[in-house]
Write a structure and sequence with these properties.
Strands 1, 2, 3, 4, 5, 6, 7, 8 and 9 form a 9-stranded mixed sheet that branches. Strands 12-11-10-13 form a 4-stranded mixed sheet. Strand 11 and strand 12 form a beta hairpin. The N and C termini lie far apart (44 Å). It is of the alpha+beta class. It has a single domain, classed as Nucleoside Triphosphate Pyrophosphohydrolase (Alpha-Beta Complex), CATH 3.90.79. The chain has 5 helices and 13 strands.
Length: 239
């Protein structure tokens, strides 16, 4: 296995006392203890898993309404890994990173300008293997205590950044099932100019359920990837 974290990997679970967090985040963080890859629709990590990586799932709340949101970015179509996809900030481990939390915070700063000092890491999820790019990914949950401005740092890598309300993501009218190029079905979310599917869509759907934000929904149809993107491009209003 390449690229080990210097301090080793963390077990899935809270990094802080869930009771110390805002009420809207307590349930999610408390439910991260003991999670395994199968809880996210993933197989157990293969023995020969590849490069280690981490992503930052960054939650904040609107200062006026108090509604929780999550940070998403859209990758450039020119990058080699997952071009054009919507994802959480993140990337491969650097030799100087002291664990997955450090990787996730560093990547969020380099990609969209999130200041590490403004983020409280609150939990880590189990390592999830992404066979398509041969990454072993540790999702890190963060509470953005002092949200600041964000934007693509390098448009060759990132073309858009958005804070999306969890209420909007959970709305059944914004949810669908997408079949990827391999024919595998993925939970997905359609937003103006953004289609969230694949690894990120599956992880986000699981987090909405764990946090108690999910709403019952029944997909009317499954979309292929091209049709789903056309739907996102036509979507002008977030409901």
């Amino acid at each position: 296995m390449t690229g080990p974290f210097p301090s080793g990997s963390l077990l899935a679970g809270p990094l802080v006392d869930p009771a110390s967090l805002p009420g809207w985040l307590t349930t999610l963080v408390s439910r991260t203890a003991g999670l395994v890859p199968e809880d996210f629709g993933r197989d157990s990590v293969p023995a020969a898993a590849g490069r280690r990586a981490a992503v930052l799932v960054l939650f904040a709340s609107d200062p006026h309404t108090g509604e929780p949101d999550v940070l998403l970015q859209r990758r450039s179509a020119r990058v080699s890994a997952h071009p054009g996809q919507v994802c959480f900030p993140g990337g491969a481990v650097d030799e100087t990173d002291d664990g997955p939390v450090a990787t996730a915070l560093r990547e969020a700063g380099e990609e969209v300008g999130v200041r590490a000092a403004d983020v409280l890491p609150v939990a880590v999820l189990p390592q999830l293997y992404l066979a398509r790019s041969n990454f072993l990914i540790t999702p890190v949950l963060g509470h953005w205590q002092r949200p600041g401005p964000v934007a693509p740092v390098d448009y060759r890598e990132t073309v858009a950044v958005a804070r999306v309300l969890l209420r909007v993501l959970a709305d059944p009218v914004n949810r669908l099932i997408v079949r990827g190029p391999s024919g595998c079905p993925y939970p997905a979310f359609v937003l103006p100019g953004m289609l969230v599917w694949g690894f990120t869509g599956r992880l986000l759907a699981a987090l909405l359920t764990l946090g108690g934000w999910a709403r019952p929904w029944e997909p009317a149809a499954e979309y292929d990837l091209e049709a789903a993107w056309r739907l996102a491009e036509r979507t002008e209003v977030i409901r």
